[in-house]
């Protein structure tokens, strides 16, 4: 049995894909509304995951913050306290690399396997089952993670055995994503000042050297709410690594001023 912890805008379709692929799936979310949505789609839910942790072969964590991940992992009713040794935990949430490394160390002391497994391509990728996953962790654990994620992941890149490496890969993805988003917003604002039709211009740009993923999905830019969190992780990671990132420092300011992006 696989427990999906977090039935939000991405976790819910992921759990549905896994169940539809034949996996025995149980869902949990602290929100009764989110649990009801999974039930309405034929899913099985619990209101207290601690009771099913001992039966879980794997736990998939897809929540929004490090605080939530830490509570799920090490809280009184959490994974470390209740899961069996050998249980595989996939941390799909976007978190800082040093954080996932620390969680992995704590879990390993109880014999619990952790794979760093963030995903890209946003909610639309989760719904379509076409996410990109970056994975890091022990080789055998990553292979097991690939098998579990297959129902909703179209592409996988295993980036190393060190927990945190996958989060760095996701962070690099996000640094480039939000830089492109801010360039898109700025460029389209200039075009509007000259009365160019933004939809026509965007159709042209995605066939040209300005093409980028954010521009392709610009009509849904408001569905990408994590820019501030992502840039904070990027700047903290760069500082820890001693890497200068002046463009990302500017992007960090610009995403907070954006009139297009939505902030969680």
UniProtKB/TrEMBL annotation:
The active site is at 170. This is NAD(P)-dependent oxidoreductase. The keyword Oxidoreductase applies. Pfam families: NAD_binding_11, NAD_binding_2. InterPro entries: 6-PGluconate_DH-like_C_sf, 6PGD_dom2, 6PGDH_NADP-bd, HIBADH-like_NADP-bd, HIBADH-related, NAD(P)-bd_dom_sf. Residues 164-257 form the 3-hydroxyisobutyrate dehydrogenase-like NAD-binding domain. Residues 5-157 form the 6-phosphogluconate dehydrogenase NADP-binding domain. SUPFAM superfamilies: 6-phosphogluconate dehydrogenase C-terminal domain-like, NAD(P)-binding Rossmann-fold domains. Keywords: NAD, Oxidoreductase. One of its GO terms (molecular function) is NADP binding.
């Amino acid at each position: 049995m696989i427990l999906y912890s977090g039935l939000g805008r991405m976790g819910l379709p992921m759990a549905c894909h896994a169940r539809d692929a034949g996996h025995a799936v149980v869902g949990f979310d602290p929100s009764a509304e989110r649990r009801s949505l999974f039930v309405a789609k034929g899913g099985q839910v619990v209101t207290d995951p601690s009771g099913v942790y001992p039966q879980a072969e794997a736990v998939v964590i897809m929540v929004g913050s490090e605080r939530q991940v830490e509570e799920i992992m090490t809280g009184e009713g959490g994974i470390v306290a209740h899961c069996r040794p050998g249980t595989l935990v996939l941390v799909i949430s976007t978190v800082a690399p040093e954080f996932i490394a620390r969680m992995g160390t704590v879990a390993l002391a109880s014999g619990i396997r952790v794979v760093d497994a963030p995903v890209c391509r946003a909610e639309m990728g989760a719904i379509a089952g076409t996410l990109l996953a970056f994975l890091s962790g022990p080789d055998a654990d990553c292979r097991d993670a690939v098998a579990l994620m297959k129902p909703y992941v179209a592409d996988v890149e295993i980036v190393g055995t060190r927990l945190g490496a996958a989060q760095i890969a996701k962070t690099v993805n996000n640094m480039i994503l939000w830089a492109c988003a801010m360039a898109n917003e700025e460029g389209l604002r200039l075009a509007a000042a000259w009365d160019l039709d933004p939809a026509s211009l965007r159709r042209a740009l995605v066939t040209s050297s300005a093409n980028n993923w954010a521009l392709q999905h610009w009509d849904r830019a408001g569905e990408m709410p994590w820019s501030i969190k992502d840039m904070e992780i990027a700047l903290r990671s760069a500082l820890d690594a001693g890497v200068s990132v002046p463009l990302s420092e500017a992007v960090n300011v610009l995403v907070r001023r954006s009139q297009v992006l939505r902030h969680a």
